[in-house]
Write a structure and sequence with these properties.
- There is one protein chain.
- This protein has 245 residues and is mostly helical.
- The protein has two domains: 123 residues, Orthogonal Bundle (Helix Hairpins); 105 residues, minor pseudopilin epsh fold (3-Layer(bab) Sandwich).
- The chain is built from eleven helices and three strands; from the N terminus they run H-H-H-H-H-H-H-E-E-H-E-H-H-H.
- Strands 2-1-3 form a three-stranded antiparallel β-sheet.
- Helix 1 packs across helix 5 and helix 2 packs antiparallel against helix 3.
- Bound molecules: manganese (III) ion.
- Manganese (III) ion binds next to helix 3.
Length: 245
């Protein structure tokens, strides 16, 4: 299992805690879900910032090298650093049986674990302009047409939802394994899609201001429009194929 998936298990545990916020959660349960989180730590002992699958200037002019550098080296790296700090504390609280310490950590783990996961998915979702295209006879195009009527409809609905996120958050195209459909969903802050909704992430659009302010100032709609030019359709289709297995 990849570390990404195990982080997801940990985040599901966080959701469980938040629905039952009391000190009556048995320590055994806390310990079990904490160990799911702790086992997500790679063998080197810490989560690390993954390399981008392309150069910092590869998405220009849609997203500048300056934005990509700040977003990856500063913002994403901060989530990774703080996730590692949180997991270290979690480890010591589990060892000492500090239940309130463990519960108190959950919001930070959700935020930083979600931030690490979301950005990892986001970088993979992008690629240099024109390097991939949606194959009109492929599985992904067919599934989009089944769920939205047309590709243009899906793009328009995901764009509108992403632009409409209040404050900081994410717009998502997710796969619902229960009804076999693709769905549009938005999440606030760094709430991870799968752990909080059950949808498998296919396309994610980061609409935090840090993702576009350098290039588009406050004009979020222009940024969201430009994302489609650098979308990695191959990665999105592969995620869908994996989700349907
Ligand atoms: Mn971001």
């Amino acid at each position: 299992m990849s570390s990404k998936n195990v982080v997801n298990i940990g985040l599901k545990a966080v959701k469980h805690f938040q629905h039952s916020k009391s000190s009556k959660i048995p320590f055994a349960d806390l310990k079990k879900s904490s160990s799911a989180y702790l086992s997500s730590v790679p063998s080197g002992g810490k989560h690390i910032l993954p390399d981008l699958p392309y150069d910092y200037d590869a998405l220009e002019p849609c997203i500048s090298a300056e934005t990509m550098t700040l977003h990856h080296k500063k913002h994403h790296n901060t989530y990774v650093t703080n996730l590692n700090v949180g997991l270290e504390k979690l480890d010591s609280f589990v060892s000492s049986g500090n239940v309130s310490g463990i519960i108190g950590l959950q919001d930070a783990l959700r935020f930083n674990g979600g931030g690490h996961l979301n950005h990892t998915l986001f970088w993979e979702n992008l690629c240099p302009k024109g390097s991939t295209e949606l194959k009109s006879d492929g599985l992904f195009a067919k599934e989009i047409e089944k769920s939205f009527g047309s590709v243009e409809n899906m793009k328009s609905q995901l764009s509108t939802a992403s632009v409409g996120v209040q404050g900081s958050g994410w717009g998502w195209l997710g796969y619902n394994g229960k009804n076999g459909k693709l769905e549009i969903c938005t999440r606030s802050n760094q709430d991870p899609l799968e752990a909080t909704t059950g949808l498998t992430p296919i396309i994610g659009i980061d609409v935090w201001e840090h993702a576009y302010y350098v290039d588009y100032r406050n004009v979020r709609p222009d940024y969201v429009k430009a994302i489609w030019d650098v979308l990695n359709w191959d990665v999105a289709e592969k995620r869908l194929i994996d989700a349907k297995k």
